[in-house]
Specification:
It is built from 17 helices and 14 strands. It has about 400 residues and is α/β, with parallel strands linked by helices. The protein has three domains: about 5-55 and about 150-315, Rossmann fold (3-Layer(aba) Sandwich), CATH 3.40.50.1100; about 55-145, Rossmann fold (3-Layer(aba) Sandwich); about 325-400, Alpha-Beta Plaits (2-Layer Sandwich), CATH 3.30.70. The strands form three sheets. A six-stranded mixed beta sheet has the order 1-2-10-7-8-9, with helices on both faces. Strands 5-4-3-6 form a four-stranded parallel beta sheet, with helices on both faces. It has a four-stranded antiparallel beta sheet with strand order 12-13-11-14. Helix 6 (about 105-115) links the parallel strand 4 and strand 5. It is elongated. The relative contact order is 0.11.
């Protein structure tokens, strides 16, 4: 395995994969730029056929295998995007693909990978356990193992994004790239620095998995078990990628889980595009570190859009609740006919749409004759919530929040 990757390898990868993956759009978001005080250019890698940049590196690797290697088949370990990229392009090239996934992998990801003709083996409670089994299985079956990030061909393939971004918008001052194992940012940084040496390349990690940030700052990382950005939930960078990041990446910033959730919703509402947690990390970084990016022309890689529908629903509701557009009140009612109808009428007059009502007597600490009723209400935001609370209190009702918000 070569010790590193250079721009010639990235340029060759661009020629090699050109007709087989999308040169995805790089578009200026006028609304997001106005909100955040910098020019935000979005690279829509979520529009690839498998909805992720991972196709690029997987295909570049596959196209460089010998016919005998393709005939024996390829094996990858992944819980998502890399699996689909390898499976799809192996199928296109007529090669057998085996994908090892952890037991807890979401069913929809397993089925998507199988839909591309791959054999899927579920093994291990963690990614590390799945990887160990995959490496062993590849050796036993004489299949070529395709690493998700620590491979020169994979890194070069991912780097083609950098070429496309600077060709489309050479005026960019800075590129924001999510970091998992480091393959994407390594390749993009190599390409960007070769084409425009003074451009900044900044990596983004979640506070739950700060592997690169800790390595560059020489601090001991603390990892959590779960993150909404599972595509960049990597505890250890690659033997190839870490030196490349040290050499070519200018900075790494951390973002909170809540900021990633907010960015997912902003992209959906403003750009009408679906981004997974890792894909939204770049926009989250701009929101978390406004001074770092103020006034700059920033290219943001939306690395993928493979997000579970149920998770997306939960994120949407959480963000609506944080923005006071979905609020739950506990209102104490006198135990007499018409009280519930009076509250409903007040809310209706204020254009507050009632989503749910829960009337609980048995498991409540409220006096039996004045039970509390919980109303889940759709609002227009904080000012609307304040008006609702004032009006209800003037009407004689005791109101308190039924979830973690402050009421006026």
């Amino acid at each position: 395995m070569p010790a590193s990757v250079d721009f010639r390898a990235v340029r060759s990868a661009a020629r090699r994969i050109k007709r087989h993956v999308l040169d995805t759009p790089l578009l200026l978001s006028r609304t997001l730029s106005q909100i955040h005080g910098c020019e935000i250019w979005l690279k829509f890698e979520n529009l690839q056929f498998t909805a992720s940049f991972k196709e690029r590196g997987a295909l570049n690797k596959l196209l460089q295998l010998q016919p005998a290697q393709l005939a024996r088949g390829v094996l990858a370990v992944s819980a998502g995007n890399h699996a689909q990229g390898v499976a799809y392009h192996a199928q296109r090239l007529g090669a057998r693909a085996c994908i090892v996934m952890p037991l807890a992998t979401a069913h929809v990801k397993v089925e998507r990978t199988r839909d591309f003709g791959a054999e899927v083996i579920l093994h291990g409670e963690s990614f590390d356990a799945a990887r160990e089994h995959g490496v062993r299985l590849a050796a036993e079956r004489a299949m070529t193992f395709i690493h998700p990030y620590d491979d020169p061909a994979v890194i070069a393939g991912q780097g083609t994004i950098g070429i496309e971004m600077l060709r489309a918008a050479p005026q960019l001052d800075l590129l924001l790239v999510p970091i998992g194992g480091g393959g994407l940012i390594s390749g993009v940084a190599i390409a960007a620095k070769a084409l425009k040496p003074r451009i900044e390349v900044v990596g983004v990690e979640t506070t739950s998995y700060p592997a690169a940030w800790a390595a560059l700052s020489k601090r001991k990382p603390r990892f959590r078990h779960s993150t909404v950005a599972d595509g960049i939930a990597v505890r250890q960078l690659g033997a190839l990628t870490l030196p490349l990041i040290r050499r070519h990446v200018d900075d790494v910033v951390l973002v909170a889980e809540s900021a990633i959730e907010q960015a997912i919703v902003a992209l959906l509402e403003i750009e009408k595009t679906v981004a997974e947690g890792a894909g939204a990390a770049g926009l989250a970084a701009i929101a978390c570190h406004p001074r770092r990016f103020a006034g700059k022309r920033v290219g943001v890689v939306l690395s993928g859009g493979n997000i579970d529908t149920l998770l997306l629903t939960q994120i949407l509701r959480r963000v609506l609740a944080r923005g006071r557009r979905l609020v739950r009140f506990a209102i104490r009612l006198p135990d007499r006919p018409g009280a519930l109808a009076r509250v409903s009428a007040v809310l209706g007059e204020l254009d507050a749409n009632i989503e749910a009502i829960e009337h609980q007597r048995t498991f409540s600490s409220a006096p039996l004759k004045t039970p509390e009723v919980e109303f889940t209400v759709q609002t227009r935001g904080s000012a609307h919530v304040r008006a609702i609370v004032r009006t209800l209190r003037r009407a004689g009702f005791a109101v308190r929040p039924a979830h973690d918000i402050a009421l006026p």
